Fold TetR/AcrR family transcriptional regulator.
Amino acid sequence: MPRKPVARNAVLDAFETLLIEVGERGATLEAVAAKAGVSKGGLLYHFPNKEALIAALLDRFDELAQEEVEAMKTAPEGAGVYFIKASVWDGGPLDRSFVAASRLAEVAHEETQRRFAGIQQQWLEVLTAELGEDLARAVRYMSDGLYFNAVLENGGGREMDPSKTDAEVESLLRILELVRGKG
Amino acid sequence: MPRKPVARNAVLDAFETLLIEVGERGATLEAVAAKAGVSKGGLLYHFPNKEALIAALLDRFDELAQEEVEAMKTAPEGAGVYFIKASVWDGGPLDRSFVAASRLAEVAHEETQRRFAGIQQQWLEVLTAELGEDLARAVRYMSDGLYFNAVLENGGGREMDPSKTDAEVESLLRILELVRGKG
DNA sequence: GTCTATAAACTGATAGAC
DNA sequence: GTCTATCAGTTTATAGAC
């Protein structure tokens, strides 16, 4: 694979960050260029228009989501436990990619919505293989709920209290274990 | 309480619909006015600026959320079961209000984020009283996950398959009953 | 590869007629 | 209460210099 220029990645990171922090509306080409340390013209050399910028973001999201599928399958603690733990916002690449992409889906960007559906379907299949349909769905929705709250609360870029979110995840894991022991 | 003019409510409904269907960016004053069947000037008579429009939307969201708290408390099937069932998108007033407001939260609108947090806190308290902390959190996140998916999938205004969503809710309710029987 | 300058379209908001 | 006309500020994108 060809080595991408540094500026290109800086632009992509800046776009992602702005989507997370100020939403789709605030992620203007000018704001992205400024955050990436290039001019608007320089940005548009690497990405001829805004759709190209979005496409690159979605490609990266797909890559990271694919890695996550593998990680789930090989996780020692099991796919379900791994998945819930991974759904807590920790500022990692997949979390950032997920939230940024969700901001685009929310403005009714059709291609983004399609990609999201595909990725979530893959995750659900791995969960179902381990947990069965009912519990897999429960885990999937709990994970989505965790992300939904990251999406809502992280708008202003404020940090989340790690001990608080840890306690929340422990709650969910206890429920998961309870059902596995019983079901 | 004073009777609000018809046009005013038509504008508010149009704003809500556009937020749901095309997102915050597409819900421009011009688009809202057109959908409500008034001119931009007419719209701005009732709502002096866009913030006023948002404020009215949030007030209605608060009202409906408050009614939901009461409905949860008095639901014969219990707050948890009622809450999960109510979290499925059915195009009702609270669902629409919730999704519309989430679109504003996603563009980092601070006041909207604050209101959301307050409402979710109230809902969680009712759930905790009935289910205990762990299960209440699980139910809360499953509900959020349900809404998150409504937010994502409903962007294009497409309908959801009722039988499919019904089956999904049954899945979640079985898990809930299982834990209640055990926990 | 990166910049400045600028065009073309759009958005929120004001002024004033009816 | 509702409309048309219009302005000022933004946003995406293009053209062309370096």
Remarks:
- Chain B has nine helices and no strands.
- Chain B touches chain A through 47 residues (CB under 8 Å).
- Residues 58-182 of chain B form one domain.
- Residues 5, 7, 38-43, 45-46 of chain B lie near DNA strand D (CB under 10 Å from a C1').
